Amino acid sequence: MAKIGVGRRAVLKGGAALLLVKGQTVGAQGDAAAIRPKEGDFLVKVDTPGAKPLTPDDVPVGMTQTMAWPLDPMDGTVRNGSRLNRILLLRLDSSTLTPDTRARAADGVVAYTAICTHTGCEVIDWHADEQMLSCPCHYSKFDPKDGARVADGPAPRALPALPLQTIDGKLAVAKPFTTRVGFEQP
Fold first, then answer.
1. Is residue 131 part of a domain?
2. What is the mean pLDDT of residues 181-186?
3. Taking a C-beta distance cutoff of 8 angstroms, is the pair 145, 98 a contact?
4. Measured between alpha carbons, how far is 148 from 161 in angstroms, rounded to an integer?
5. Could you give phi then psi for residue 90, rounded to 5 degrees?
6. How many Å apart are CA 66 and CA 86, to the nearest integer?
7. Structural domain containing residue 37
8. What is the CATH classification number for the domain harbouring 75?
9. Is 130 among the domain residues?
10. Is residue 139 part of a domain?
11. What Rg value do the Cα atoms of the chain yield, rounded?
């Protein structure tokens, strides 16, 4: 009986062909807007024209999260070419943060991926009374004071954190995400 299917080599060749368009690489490697946040990138508010770097004071204390994109300060590229670069910012009382979380914060501002680790929905809900983030798709809750650990729900792991610093009073990326940004495959 003949085996029907596509071999590994054919799949790899086809995938490589998709990555080349007129001799240029496309995707995360060739698109500056899709590159993951890098040390020194500033953060700018999503859906705000002008790409003005945020300061800690632009993130209200204890209020709902501020959604942001990384901004390359060298060429002004907003890294919004991949939804995996969407970052949520919260400003919390530093005394309520665990030591590890406090070490990654800048003036009480913490940063996490906005992509839920369960199925990739956006973490857009803030429960001020509990000081918890949650994903509206399957109701996973994350504790931003404790490294965005899973407090409830089906998410398999904490939200990856993005360590921050301030540069000239502006929020900036200090290091890459603490773990891989992504989610379970259904």
1. yes
2. 78
3. yes
4. 8
5. -135, 145
6. 11
7. 33-173
8. 2.102.10.10
9. yes
10. yes
11. 19
Which residue from 65, 64, 37 is spatially nearest to 174, judged by alpha carbons? 37
For every residue of 30-44, which 3-state class applies, written as one string?
Answer: CCHHHCCCCCCCEEE
12-68 per-position pLDDT tens digit = 344 433 333 223 334 445 689 999 999 999 999 998 888 899 999 999 998 999 999
**CA atoms of 55 and 89, how far apart (whole Å):** 11
Signed CA dihedral, 178, 98, 58, 113: sign only: positive
DSSP 22-91: TTEE-STTT-GGGSPP-TT-EEEETT-TT-PBP-GGGS-BTSSPEEEEEE-TTT--B--SSGGG-EEEEE
**In the numeric block, which tokens belong to residue 180?**
């891989």
Query: What does the pLDDT read at residue 122?
Result: 95
Strand order in the sheet with 164-167: 109-113, 87-91, 66-71, 42-45, 170-173, 164-167
Task: Domain count for the chain, please give it.
Answer: 1
For range 115-137, the mean pLDDT: 95
- CB crowding 137-146: b at 16 or more within 10 Å, else e: beebbbbbbe
Q: Over the stretch 87-108, which tens digit does the pLDDT of each residue have? A: 999 999 999 999 999 999 999 9
Question: Is 153 a member of any domain?
Answer: yes
